[in-house]
From TrEMBL:
GO MF: ATP binding; nucleoside diphosphate kinase activity
PROSITE patterns registered for this protein in UniProt: NDPK, NDPK_LIKE
InterPro entries: NDK-like_dom, NDK-like_dom_sf, Nucleoside_diP_kinase, Nucleoside_diP_kinase_AS
Cofactors (names): Mg(2+)
Residue ranges occupied by any Nucleoside diphosphate kinase-like domain in the UniProt entry: 5-142
Coiled-coil intervals, chain numbering: none
Catalytic activity: a 2'-deoxyribonucleoside 5'-diphosphate + ATP = a 2'-deoxyribonucleoside 5'-triphosphate + ADP
Protein name: Nucleoside diphosphate kinase
Source lineage: Eukaryota, Metazoa, Echinodermata, Eleutherozoa, Echinozoa
Protein family (similarity comment): Belongs to the NDK family.
Enzyme class at the top of the EC tree: transferase
PANTHER family, sorted: NUCLEOSIDE DIPHOSPHATE KINASE
List of catalytic residues: 119 (pros-phosphohistidine intermediate)
Residues reported in the UniProt entry to bind ATP: 13, 61, 89, 95, 106, 116
Length: 153
């Protein structure tokens, strides 16, 4: 069972919240079989967003990204399941929506790279860091849904 408990951080960005597609994104993760461990609507400060995206601080778009991501509410989530980080990234699609396959979240809902509606952890290490940045330990709910035995052997 322990191998099925990998966690990833997924965030519906400002543009996704404004477009009203939080539920659509959550539904995809639920239908895939992942378990929601935490979720909240938040209005992050620019400083908080800068910490979140600090690995991109040398990129020319960093400042613009941080201003945009702190301009309105985001929906932060923690999902748990087998290979959650890698699978979550595949479900999101390419960072550039025009390179994303139909059937992925970005492939179905986005056109422009600057409005790609969702963020997902790119490694287990970054997932742990991002989860810790957005959630306190007591906000992470440890539970087992009854559907668990229908998803995992």
């Amino acid at each position: 069972m322990a191998g099925n408990a990998e966690r990833t951080f997924i965030m519906v960005k400002v543009d996704g919240v404004e477009r009203g597609i939080i539920g659509e994104i959550m539904t995809r993760f639920e239908k895939r079989g992942f378990k929601l461990v935490a979720g909240k609507l938040a209005k992050a400060s620019e400083e908080h967003i800068k910490k979140h995206y600090e690995d991109l601080s040398s990129k020319p778009f960093y400042s613009k990204l941080c201003k945009f991501a702190s301009s309105g509410p985001v929906f932060a989530m923690v999902w748990e399941g087998l290979d959650a980080v890698r699978t979550g990234r595949v479900m999101l699609g390419e960072t550039d929506p025009l390179k994303s396959s139909p059937g992925t979240i970005r492939g179905d809902y986005c056109i422009h790279i600057g409005r790609n509606i969702v963020h997902g952890s790119d490694s287990v290490e970054s997932a742990k860091k991002e989860i810790g940045l957005w959630f306190k330990d007591d906000e992470l709910v440890d539970w087992t849904p009854t559907s668990h035995t229908w998803i995992y052997e």
